[in-house]
Fold these 2 entries.
Entry 1:
Amino acid sequence: MTDLATYNFAYLDEQTKRMIRRAILKAISIPGYQVPFASREMPMPYGWGTGGVQVTAAIIGPEDVLKVIDQGADDTTNAVSIRAFFQKVADVAVTTHTKDATIIQTRHRIPEQKLTEGQVLVYQVPIPEPLRFLEPRETETRKMHALEEYGLMHVKLYEDIAINGRISKTYAYPVKVDGRYVMDPSPTPKFDNPKMHMSDALQLFGAGREKRIYAVPPHTEVVSLDFEDYPFEIQTFEQDCALCGAHGVYLDEVVLDDKGGRMFVCSDTDHCEDRREHGHAGAMLAPNQEAAE
Amino acid sequence: MSDNPLLKVSGVSKFYGSRIGCQDVNFELWPGEVLAIVGESGSGKTTLLNCISTRLLPTAGSVEYRMRDGNFRDLYHMSEAERRFLMRTDWGFVHQNPADGLRMTVSAGANVGERLMAVGDRHYGKIRETATDWLGRVEISADRIDDQPRAFSGGMRQRLQIARNLVTGPRLVFMDEPTGGLDVSVQARLLDLVRGLVNDLGLAAIVVTHDLAVARLLSHRMMVMKDGHVIEHGLTDRVLDDPREPYTQLLVSSILQV
């Protein structure tokens, strides 16, 4: 009696996985369209990635190598627990290296390293409807998607410029996929929006509480919405990463003390570690780590 | 006025179960003409307006509209996409309560600009310029462009709603009690404004009102409704000065004289 709790491979039963795969196939066929699916209860609370976990569970196979990131980091609670979950219920290999992974489940970031053909990026999505805060009625937003009435999205951007002098939306920045559907790229920073455009990897989005799956197939046009005289632009950072010296990557601010001390480091921990291994050093990296230990 | 009507309404009826909303209404509306639908509360004015403006599916009858290409189309045989496109470009709808027709949580400029963005305008500077121009035309000062309608008075809201509807240069505007809920001096100013705009732009309009003074000031022709039926129909001055139906006579004689 060693195996008291036995799970089907990847936790979900085969019929459920089949249902989710059908939703995924439909989502891939209609890029950016939100496909309803019968989301299951997962052994974690809503908001912790139940949608992403179900998508991953439906596509993962014994040969896959899984990487899980939360805000770019491999070592935060959400990432660690989901990784451990799949190690337990699917017994798959896991990695923190972007280039080695076949499936990357992510919350809020796209890895800095360019994704390649054959990789699948699974997003955990809290609110899949980009028009939700502008139009509360689901019946109405569905109609707006069906009839391609997206003027309202620009009203939001107009409002941003009128109040702040620029488009101040920095995350969940709306995009138009394949010239048709307006899509919420989940709360990724707009810094990552250009990476979605013509990506070699397949991008799948799962929203567990809202029961929606949508997708961006490889080599699909993803355009961020903007005005002709206020074009879309991504965040820029004055500093380089304090640990690896990387420039032009997305940085997190880390508060060091209560006297205003702070440092800016790569949000993508794997990217940062990889650079340090290759001898890059930022301003605040300890000069000799072996000596310090 | 051109030779062809803009709108042809024939045999429109709406039943709510066994109750009559409106029954067998026929009329034609020419470009540049303002038609008032008057009657007491519950007489079917708003039901009729909603049936004509595709907001409510009539039980029977047809509503045909002359599109910009000159061809008549039955509104209820169009696809929903075409109908909605028509509603936000070639038509306007002014609600009695401005909160129903405005987005109360976005600025006045965005309210006016929404229709422009809906038809594909993607230049912020131009949208703002047009919005400023339209606010001026409805006598809202340009420095209120970034204020939300919540901060506006009732009269200003109503004027903003009118600007929002007219910005795409519609040919037909529906108004449901446009002056309801406004005090008398504001009403007078609004009517003056609407009359000016309708004349300048050559708009056709259908105005639903229970206020005969509004009908007198705005409309060329009027229809009197009672219990879902049109009981009298004619030039506004004729109907008001020389009402034929006993009910119309009653209605006209019950205007308060000060």
Entry 2:
Amino acid sequence: MRRSTRRRLQIWALNLGVVVVAAVLVLLADWGRIHENFWSDDGVALSGGNWGDLITIGAVNTIKYTAIAFAGGLALGLALALLRLSPVATLRWLATVYIEFFRGLPALIVIVFMGFGLPIAFQWRPPGGLVGAGLIALIMVAGAYMAETLRAGIQAVPKGQTEAARSLGMGSIATTTRVVLPQAFRIVIPPLTNEFVLLIKDTALLSVIGATFDQRELTTIARDFQSSGVSAGTATSLVQAALLYLVITLPLTQLVSWLERRQRKASR
Amino acid sequence: MTATVLGPNGEPAPAIDVRGLHKSYGHHEVLKGIDFFVDAGQVVCVIGPSGSGKSTLLRCVNRLEEPTSGKVLVEGIDICDPDTDLDDVRSRIGMVFQQFNLFPHLSVLKNLTLAQRTVRGRSKDEAVEVARHNLARVGLSDKEAAYPAHLSGGQQQRVAIARALSMNPDMMLFDEPTSALDPELVGDVLAVMKELATEGMTMMVVTHEMGFAREVGDKLVFMDGGVVVEEGRPAEVLGNPQHQRTQAFLSKVL
């Protein structure tokens, strides 16, 4: 048998296998119960009902919280990255400890700690209530991750760039802000976009602490609709929220791969 | 352009005055006591095998490399003195690198105006005017909107020279400026450098271009193993080398 023929047969066998497995799953599934549990049976899943709050409050807040956490995390991450590259050993050490600490903790625990632990311990009222405390926690964790991304980007800028700027008499601040950082940011756009997508999903963790009616993000609202409203007692609202998350994240993940393709083409 | 600068005792100080310079990386000693000077208006070429320390010597002149011991005086100013404004001294020393080191995120014009604006504090109009004047000097007036990635190596190096010149430096350091170029592009860069020399620019050139050294240089310095082995008028050093190590090196490259 020729090699190309054998290869074509292998691909056919694989495709056939996938179809058979899918068919078996479809036949075995209890469609009635799936419909009842995940797409509640009286048709509310498509018309009215949960969608209003999920979109106008939930999706809007999810995007808003992601933007806040990303902007804050980016600023914090940049400061930490510059500290990690500082010539002063104490500053480097402080930044390293912070980064390792917050990268090693689940974001969920940091959120609970900021929301409930610190306010009790220090009589502290976080701005924006519990959601505000949760957002600060997300910023602290995101900052630790972005610091490492940014540090890698800064270090990827060739040393000759700094030397050229310094040889022209530019000081270290001008060299960093005008020569190194613009190039570093270009390098880290794909990984940073990736972290933006991760952050969208991390805002769901805010559902573990309380929020006022208008402060709720997608997951909080979806969980509220599990116990009240037209689809109470089913997971319908979670499926709806999942669809909304995909509507937000899919364009972004496409954007990441487009950016990566463009960068590959532009790199010399 | 070559202002006469007086030393501390009123005598004219050399543009570059290196005394007893040592440089080590850990236990590896790259420069083993170098005495070296360039007078204002002179073109001094430094040759030698790779690893001889010639680039390190050049990089010590604007303190891109930190001297381990010894003195480096630029126009009479000790660049290792903590009271010296190093950025100010550097802004008066143009430097051209083997790898060009243009800023890839900026257009050619912005490459030339950035330091003028941030270091010299020139207005945008003034900086652009100076930049265009220097682009014309290197024959690249039509490339001001281009980005470095779209230029040939020879064009990039000429832009790098124009960038250094836009600071109106008192002297220029060239660190193997043609070593990364395709052979057919070397001539354009050397022509620009020759033009600079005839205009009276003080130049220190680390190079492998013996023809340039012979034709343009006022002095030729041969380095090997971290020391200056021989120096003198280029025609004499190249034509009648006194030292056996110089003879061995020249017999290989000429």
